[in-house]
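Protocol step 4 of 5: obtain the predicted structure for the target chain.
Materials: sequence only (see below). No template structures provided, no constraints applied. The aim of this step is simply to have a reference model before the mutagenesis design in step 5. Sequence pasted as it appears in the construct record:
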Amino acid sequence: MRKIALAILIALASPFQAHAQSADLVLCDRLAADPSDPDKPADVRGVADVAPADIPTAIKFCKTASGGSRRAMFQLGRAYAANRQMPEAMAAWRKAADKGSTSAMVELGVLYGTGAGVAKDEAQARKLFEKAAEAGNPRGVSNLAALGGGSPGASANPARSRELLGRAAETNAEAQYQLGLMLSNGSGGQQDDVAARAMFEKAAAQNHPGALERMGAFAQEGRGGPKDKDAAKAYYERAAALGDEDAKKALERIRCPYAIKNKQGQLVTTLCF
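Step 4 output (structure tokens):
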């Protein structure tokens, strides 16, 4: 009888324990999910940054949920990072990455690539980005392509980066922009201004500042499509409004197109309209 009673108590307790665990994960998702995390459920919006007021609660619930969820472990790292507890954040991201979290791989790659809180190691950063990219993480792909000071051609294997960007560019604006740069520069393959312009146009439609600036340049020069000064100016204005410095300079050149120089070739003044 005692064994039967114990079995009944366990059976009754199990659904409650499962519910408590899922509630922890729900709260963890609500406070610390990354909008770009491929592990994130579609019905979870995510937050760009963990709000300062939510950090203690996020750490509490993500820590509880992390035992059975790599997503929660990754999000625990985000909460720690928001609280400037970088050793704890890195430890959480390493555990999440070991369990297959591509977003955790990307975050670790960023730390190694920038030398933030850890000795700078571009080889390790590249390895992490490659692993995330191979699994289809768009940030892994774009970071792999951009590794080396923002120049896609600086990648150890530009042809491979271009291939991976091609996959991610179906849905990701940053990947579209990076692929457009590689196509326009001829990095990792043949130069193709028409295809580059198409990539920039897709990313520009999603208000990517760099892609808007590139669309302005391509429209102004007639690269990969028709030359259209009015369209170029409109693209530059949109990019400038989003803070793109190159677009601001381009607008200034349009406004003041004539440069007056001295005998030494030094700029004296410009003529503006």
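Step 4 remarks: Residues 2-32 form the longest helix (31 residues). The first strand starts at residue 258 and ends at 261.
Proceed to step 5.
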